Every structure is written in structure tokens, then in C-alpha cells.
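Prenylcysteine oxidase 1
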Amino acid sequence: MKHFVKELGLPVAPGHGSLVGIYNGEEFVFEESSWYVINVLKLLWRYGLNPLRMYMWVEDILDKFMRIYRYQTHDYTFSSNERLLHALGGNDFTQMLNQTIDESMQKAGFSHKFINEVVCPAMRVNYGQGVNINGFVGAVSLAGVESGLWAVKGGNKLVCTGLIYAAKAQVIPGTVLSIEPKTRPNSAGDTVKLYHVTYNSTSGSSSDMYDIVIIAAPLNRKMSNITFRNFNPPIPEFSNPYHQTVATFVHGRLNASFFGYEDPSAFHFGSILTTENPKLFINSLGVVSPAENTPSEEKLPLRSAVWKVFSREPLTKEQLNLLFSSYDSVKVKKWLAYPHYSPPEKCPPVILHDRIYYLNGIEWAASAMEMSAIAAKNAALLAYHQWYGNTDKIDQEDLHEKLKTEL
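C-alpha cells:
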């Protein structure tokens, strides 16, 4: 994504830093201070060297994962998500799909307290699930809570619109209904296989013929209604469910007493993460603001702010009244945000049929914008190399060593 942002010349805004509290349903088990040294001492006192070891553990995984950018720069591609992961981190990466983040970190020697109080809240805010998600997506989630996060001024959606414009792509707004293989004669007197794509647009039902089809939408239940007609063998059905997350945006004043603070002026958190507790009806809540704006210096409970609340179910009026002392606006977005992870995971195929490629299978390894961007480039390279018969660029092993020796 950074490469796209740079190529498009989009301005970047650093993430607004706010103090974090981790709440277990009864009390805050960790309260971040504005003083770095105090935070270090707090973490050492409660968790020992676990935080430092986690940073090193995640960095090691990220270092291996970063190899994908070098591979793709040299136009290498992979015909399955498992092969892509194996090329980056060997058996360690593929095994992470088959065990939970809890199991992965316990094997690495992390304490139960640290996993329950630090790792689990990160999973809940990023994926709405606990430490039973697979180890790879868990590592991605932990990378997402580190410092240095940023956003595009005006919204990350500008990356998508900018790329479409830069590619000079013809965009047809509509909903794909069906895909069907067809044979047509070519100028040489032979027949060629094309794909007949039917879709609904503003002008009604339409269709076109295509050489290559790339599907960038989840094909799982309740996610899309694309019918694959007359394929032999049939296109597989993907029955694994996606996980529902409810995002509630509230403009109002937080009720600090709900979190045990009788004096609102003493409450200074802009982000509240939660541990696993069946009594808790939220996964997290935090202040959000436009990328262009500078946050107010006034303490949060004393002013109205826009809070984003993540929960598994829509919040009732009673629950909103518990969380907020007053509010004047509520917007709710209920969506199937990411897969419901339940290792061992098997990723859907990248190649659904000859010259039909599927991007969203990579979400079962880890669902994130960056993962989708990587999957898109992988599919584009794969389609190109298969079209032109460049088999030496597909599914190559030991690329890390090979590319080092080419320097």
C-alpha cells in the first residue's frame, strides 16, 4: 500500500496517538501512561520480558513476510496461497495456519497472563475474535497494534480510486450475476475459450465476453451471488462463514464511571481494549477523527467526541446509556468483516478454473488491506505468466537464496 500511495502522490497523515487502557470487565489490567519510562516499568512489572519478546517474535515474522515485495518486484508468482506462504516462511508459516495464536505463542514461551491480557485484546479489536484464531492472522493482528500506523488524508479509499484512474481501467458499475465458459471461432479458423459474464447495471441486465476473469469478492455464503454455469469440473462452493462485526459510531460523552472512574477528569484513555469476558458486550471502543483534523486537547470524557465501538451484536439503547453519559448521534454498520477463523485453515484456491482467478482466498490466511493488495498483484502476475507460458516465474522455491546470489 505504501508503494501505491507514493506512486499516486497521496498525502499521508500519521495515526493520532491516544492512551490505551485494557479492561477486563471489572477493572483496567493495564493503563498506558503518557510517560514512556513509566509504561516500560509497568510492562516489566506485570509481564516481565514478554512484551519485548513479542516485539522480536512479530518482527521476525514480518521480516520473512516482507520477502513477498522482492519476489513480486522480480515478477515471481504463486498458484496457491499455501505455496506463497511457504515461499516466504517455509513450514513455519504454513504450520501457523494449523494452530491457534494461543498455541503458537505458548510454544514460543509466552505466559498465559500476557496472552490473555495483551494478545487477546489485540485479536478482539482487529478481528472480533479471541486467541483461537490461526497463528498467522494472529501475528498480523499483533503487527497492527504497533506504533507507526498511518492513513491517507481524505480516506484510504483514495488509493482505490487513484489506482483505477492511473490504470485507465473501464469501470462498469454493476453486480455480476453469472459466469459461463463459451467457445468462439477466431480469425485463424480455430476456436478459443472465452467467459461470458452477465451483470446488472444501472441500464439493466448486460453481458460481455472476457479472456480472463479475476474475482475480487468473497464467494462464501451470504457474501456474493455469482452463479458459475456449465463448468467442468464445477467451481467449488466455499461454505466457511465470515464473522459478523458491528461498528457503532457515537457522537457523545463517554461515561467514565462505567469503567470504574468516578471522576471523569481522571479518565484519559482514547482507546479501550477488552479481554475475553462473557459479561462484556463490547470488543473495543476508541475515538476516531478525520485524517485532516487535529484532535482536541480537552480531556475526552469532558467533551463530545466520535467514538467507534466494536461489538458482536448491535448495541441496545440500555447498553448505549451505560457507555455514554450523553450522545446526540448514533450510526450503526453491521457487516461480515473477515473470516471466522477456526484452525486448521485451508485457503480457497487462487485458480478456480483455467484463466479464472480468485483473490479473497488469502483472507483465510489473514484478512487485511495489505494482504488483498499482495493477492491482487500475485493474481495479475499469475494470469500474465500463464497466458504467455512463463512457467519459470511460477511456484519457484528457495527464491530468497536465489535472489541473494543474483545480486
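DSSP finds twelve helices and 16 strands in the chain.
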